[in-house]
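Batch queue: ligand-bound targets. Current item pairs a single chain with zinc ion. No template structures supplied; prediction is de novo from sequence plus SMILES. Inputs echoed for audit trail.
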Amino acid sequence: MKKELDDALCLDFPLLFRDRRGDKMKTCMVWGFCCGDYWEPFVRRIAEKLEPMIQKQIDGGTPLVDCLVASQVKSKFYSFRFYTDNFTEESFQIIQDISAEADKICDECGVIRDDKHSKHHRAWDKLQ
Ligand SMILES: [Zn+2]
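Prediction returned. Tokens below.
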């Protein structure tokens, strides 16, 4: 994902992405958002729901280290993956629902993914 989008996500959701500049021995978030730009809206939608949940945890007295935090965001085998630490049932469900929507869209070119489209990317991958 390009730097402007990455920076904006970190700026807008400082609690959820607090490990973006963390310790690379402890979190994969230091590698950034490892997917194409077209998945940024899905990352943002998840973040918009999760950020207030973290604020609520903090307000309720939960130490920050035990609060929900993004640990990895990436594309794996064309599938949208958004991992967190300290997840709750509610956050897990939100991520599942929005991930299912993201999976329908190609993160690299934004079109609706069908069988033919994923083959096009596989062929492209082989050339790299
Ligand atoms: Zn594509």
